[in-house]
Amino acid sequence: MTWAGSLIDVQKFSDGGPDLYIRVAHSELSDKQYWKAVTAAIVVVAFISILLCAHFMRKLFLKFRGETDAGCSEERTAKHNMHGVKLEALPLFKFGMISNATKKFDTTNKLGQGGFGPVFKGKLPNGQEIAVKRLARSSNQGLEEFMNEVEVISRLQHRNLVRLLGCCVEHEEKMLVYEYMPNGSLDSYLFDSRKQLLLDWQTRIVVIEGICRGLLYLHRDSRLRIIHRDLKASNILLDEELNPKISDFGMARIFCCKEDQANTTRVVGTYGYMPPEYALRGIFSEKSDVYSFGVLLLEILSGRRNTSFYHEDQQLFLIAYAWKLWNEDKIMNLVDPIIYDPRMEPDVVRYANVGLLCVQEAAADRPNTKTVLSMLSSEIVDLPRPKQPPFTAVQMSSSESECSQMSPNVCSVTNFTVRIVEGR
């Protein structure tokens, strides 16, 4: 049946009924499809608009939270290149914020000066204290250290490494922003007669083992193998509880997974902490840091710089003096008098033994960092006897040395000529 008129009282039968075909104008059908398409488009546009609004609201929220809580923008870059500096997903601080935090780099906030440039203390709007290393514009060495430090420490995270919070690269300014260590560096305590008392024996044990754990992370446990190359007392920072954190990675080198050692014609670092193979031939490895750690351990035991010498043995620096006492079974004479206690002797003997194992002349004879930590924690009970370390001879005039007021038998050398004496 075909019907072309109006439909009135159309009834649907339960048992079927005849089919009814209705003629509909083509224009009416096209209008319905058109409005369906319009409705669908409106729904899609509205949905996309909601998503975009939510995205922009989230960005605004993150930016606001970053400026107020972290003191830096949430801008991050997977690989930012400026003057050859690679920044791997580091928070970027605005120069104005750093300037305000340090009171425009006021000299009263200056913490120190290095090859990199000056270091300033600052405080972010959220109250967090920071340490800012500002690259000296005229320092080529500083630029190289800046690039190297960003490359190394931006990938590291350990409780015994100082934490990098971010950086600032604007115009000619290049700065690194670190967590602030309120107790400064280890040398400011270890070699200061007024502060030495705060470093009792148990605290020194914590410092020694903490440094070793940080080194183990650099050498074996991080995703990179890193040789610090400038481990010394002034590069160990202390937090509120005098826990140690290794700092200053400007001289550090990243090793490939199968690389055990490397050599360089440009020897960097601090004399007194350098092993002979590095000082003389430019060869460095994990064992180079182990040697530096051994020197540092002996300094912590004795409370004396490694360049200190003794009147009764004018030619002996700290390592040679420790070796002499070890062979005479008088190693307790090495202990800092401020913390001396006869009950410490078993620990002192163990720690001195480990220190002397670390400063053995041949790199192959020195233990690796993992073994050193096991020795310190008594996981390895029977320690091998150390072999003779490399000795240094000193030449100076009386005007070039300054005697310590604490002990008439100890002098600290300020200007000297070092000659490496090969052990036999």
Automatic annotation (TrEMBL):
Its EC number is 2.7.11.1. GO terms for molecular function: ATP binding; protein serine/threonine kinase activity. Residues 105-381 form the Protein kinase domain. The chain crosses the membrane at residues 34-57. Keywords: ATP-binding, Disulfide bond, Glycoprotein, Kinase, Membrane, Nucleotide-binding, Serine/threonine-protein kinase, Signal, Transferase, Transmembrane, Transmembrane helix. Gene3D superfamilies: Phosphorylase Kinase, domain 1 (3.30.200.20), Transferase(Phosphotransferase) domain 1 (1.10.510.10). It comes from the Eukaryota. SMART domains: S_TKc (SM00220). One of its GO terms (cellular component) is plasma membrane. It catalyses: L-threonyl-[protein] + ATP = O-phospho-L-threonyl-[protein] + ADP + H(+); L-seryl-[protein] + ATP = O-phospho-L-seryl-[protein] + ADP + H(+). InterPro entries: Kinase-like_dom_sf (IPR011009), Prot_kinase_dom (IPR000719), Ser-Thr/Tyr_kinase_cat_dom (IPR001245), Ser/Thr_kinase_AS (IPR008271). This is non-specific serine/threonine protein kinase. It comes from Sesamum angustifolium.
